[in-house]
Amino acid sequence: MASFIPVSDASDFSFSNLPWGAVRWADQTTHLATRLGDTVISLNLLRRAGKFASFAELERDTWNAFIDRGPEAWSAVRRELQNLYREGSDWISSPQRASCELLATEVSNVLPVHIGDYTDFYASRQHATNVGMMFRDPANALLPNWLHLPVGYHGRASTVSVSGTDVVRPNGQRKGPNDPAPVFGPSVKLDFELEVGVILQGGPRDGTGVSVEDAECHIFGLVLFNDWSARDIQQWEYVPLGPFLAKNFASTLGAWIVPYEALTEARCAGEPQEDPMPLPYLQQDRRVSHWDLTLEVAIATADGRETVVSTSNAKHLYWSFAQQIAHHSINGCVLRSGDLMASGTISGDEPDSYGSMLELTWNGTKPIRLHDGSERAFIEDGDTVVLRGRTTKGPRIGFGECRARVLPATPWQK
Ligand code: MN
Fold this sequence. Notes:
By secondary structure, this protein is an alpha+beta fold. 14% of the residues lie in helices and 27% in strands. The mean pLDDT is 97.
């Protein structure tokens, strides 16, 4: 099925995608929107033109209320959009149509959901192994719990911003293993983390949790996510309660949430989990537990030129999103619509598939060379980090960009 709006083969926003986003429209108000090629379509204005009669939630400025309606509503709106914009549709010549569309260059993206809570997991075995080798003990890189449960921590929703928002280098406290005392100042090991997040529909309010079998019914869509990290601050502060100020200064969310339903053909098997077998509440059919999504990270220097520094894939996660959701809610923790759960850094087996500078440069000991001959151990002021992701096989469905430029730390004086 094709649309009457032309979409290039190289576009992430094919007719099979129809992502959920939010934009600042020409009238300076926020509209829920979708995108086809370079055309952004306001669902808010489509509704005012008489479409989506039973979905008043599309006139809000976040997707939360619509997410609450559940998977049947999500499918219904996708079907109506596909029907409106298919080749041969009468809508092409409707006088109301033009006012509902703008070019992507004419709008700016804003956060598509109000994120009440954000949780970050640690679900890639290669990433956890690499970090364990560098931060703790190469002989016992994985802690004893890692193969038994999806390790996670509660992140900070207030500092999640949409792609395109600058990130200020954090100030903080650090102390290397051989330093006599901690020092304070701008982080000298600023890093990205290549992650995929899911935006959730809420779970039962009575604390009965979401089973691993039902978990995917709660996934509204998938989105790119950069969980910015200050490795020097992290290494000093993280024992015993885990990440804190090294993580919560900024996180960057991709602008477009790719619908769960759009990614059916990208499903793939996950790594078998037999040694050890997870406890029963985490056991699932691994044949279609994952998504085959090509992911990449580029660093752009101030002149705008990019160097791709990592190519990875979402199938490298050990713990699936369904397992993360089931584990998160098994204790009675209530999930709410709009919550963000992110995978943790997704690193493949090969050194050029690692999803952070910490791993790519092995904690700064093997700097990466960029297109202009300059080297990076970590991210420098003026650098822009760009994550991209798309389906590996079948019709191209992609996430657009998750992009942020790093600004110098704010001077601090007592
Ligand atoms: Mn992370």
